[in-house]
């Protein structure tokens, strides 16, 4: 679908009741989540929403048991914020939450299983190897062929990601793997454009082509550097239609809903290749979904409103 959104369904902030903005937590993405959450909190309050920050899942559970909130804007990046734990907790208590449900959240938090689903659906994604703890990274890289990326299967924000051009570059990843308890994904490196596509409901926002000043889009380029270029739309009109359709297909195949972001690479030989899905995308000053929304005239506060609005089913509105 083209990136054309209908008018908001609601105009009065009172329809949302008391809203918890879930942020922070104890995971590796805490600092980014705090930044995103503060932005969302300020934006919702600027529109009159009765929004309050809640730091982490234990605090949220206590607040829900005390009956303090009517719905949750989940901006807890990684960990229990995106792996289905928060979604299951809230579903059990009948509290609406932004973003995907238990299935889509749990699946896409695991990059390996997401790629397995995409492959079963015939969707394009780079060849990869699943590395259990203790696996031989040298043998896996030799089998896939250099260059490769090595990354934790269940982390985000470029945490623990290694770019390995040749065997001589592999040692840092080997050392990381030795102290990491979870599975690692080793993936063939895609040479070409790095793209991301924001999703709101059934709409694919204009793609963003990411051009870092350095060799690749690492944590520094994402959250610290001011010289990373974000070109939006990132492709020609014809290619925009193709990447938007692919992103929506990938999002739906993984059981996702509400809003999110699909990361895609355009390989110079193999064309578009799906990388991963983020079900609680960043909402910092450097984040990509707000940039794409702005391209179609939706400012930050309006984006937050639209995401929160999706927690109210259409059938409730029609009563």
From TrEMBL:
Which residues participate directly in catalysis?
29, 157, 287
Chain positions recorded as Mg(2+) 1 binding sites: 263, 276
Catalytic activities: 2 D-alanine + ATP = D-alanyl-D-alanine + ADP + phosphate + H(+)
Cofactor(s) demanded: Mg(2+); Mn(2+)
How the cofactor is bound: the record states:
Binds 2 magnesium or manganese ions per subunit.
GO BP terms in the entry:
cell wall organization; peptidoglycan biosynthetic process; regulation of cell shape
Name the residues that bind Mg(2+) 2. Answer: 276, 278
Q: What is this protein called?
A: D-alanine--D-alanine ligase
Organism from which the protein derives = Luteimonas chenhongjianii
Classification lineage = Bacteria, Pseudomonadati, Pseudomonadota, Gammaproteobacteria, Lysobacterales
């Amino acid at each position: 679908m083209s990136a054309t959104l209908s008018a908001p369904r609601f105009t009065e902030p009172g329809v949302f009741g008391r809203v918890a903005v879930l942020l922070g937590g104890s995971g590796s993405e805490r600092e980014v989540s705090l930044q995103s959450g503060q932005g969302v909190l300020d934006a919702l309050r600027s529109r009159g929403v009765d929004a309050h920050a809640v730091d982490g899942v234990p605090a949220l559970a206590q607040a829900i048991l005390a009956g303090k909130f009517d719905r949750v804007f989940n901006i807890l990046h990684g960990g229990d914020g995106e792996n289905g734990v928060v979604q299951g907790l809230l579903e059990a208590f009948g509290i609406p939450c932004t973003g995907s449900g238990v299935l889509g959240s749990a699946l896409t938090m695991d990059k390996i299983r997401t790629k397995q689903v995409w492959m079963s659906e015939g969707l394009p994604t780079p060849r990869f190897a699943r590395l259990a703890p203790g696996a031989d990274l040298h043998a896996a890289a030799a089998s896939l062929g250099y260059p490769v990326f090595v990354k934790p299967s269940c982390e985000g924000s470029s945490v623990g990601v290694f770019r390995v051009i040749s065997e001589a570059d592999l040692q840092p990843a080997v050392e990381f793997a030795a102290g990491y308890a979870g599975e690692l994904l080793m993936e063939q490196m895609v040479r070409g454009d790095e793209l991301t596509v924001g999703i709101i409901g059934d709409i694919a926002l204009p793609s963003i082509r990411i051009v870092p000043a350095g060799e690749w889009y690492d944590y520094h380029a994402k959250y610290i550097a001011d010289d990373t270029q974000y070109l939006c739309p990132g492709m020609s009109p014809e290619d925009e239609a193709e990447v938007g359709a692919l992103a929506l297909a990938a999002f739906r195949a993984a059981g996702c809903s509400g809003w999110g972001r699909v990361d895609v690479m355009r390989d110079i030989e193999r064309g578009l290749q799906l990388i991963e899905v983020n079900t609680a995308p960043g909402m910092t000053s450097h984040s990509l979904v707000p940039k794409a929304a702005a391209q179609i005239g939706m400012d930050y506060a309006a984006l937050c409103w639209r995401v929160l609005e999706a927690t109210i089913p259409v059938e409730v509105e029609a009563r």
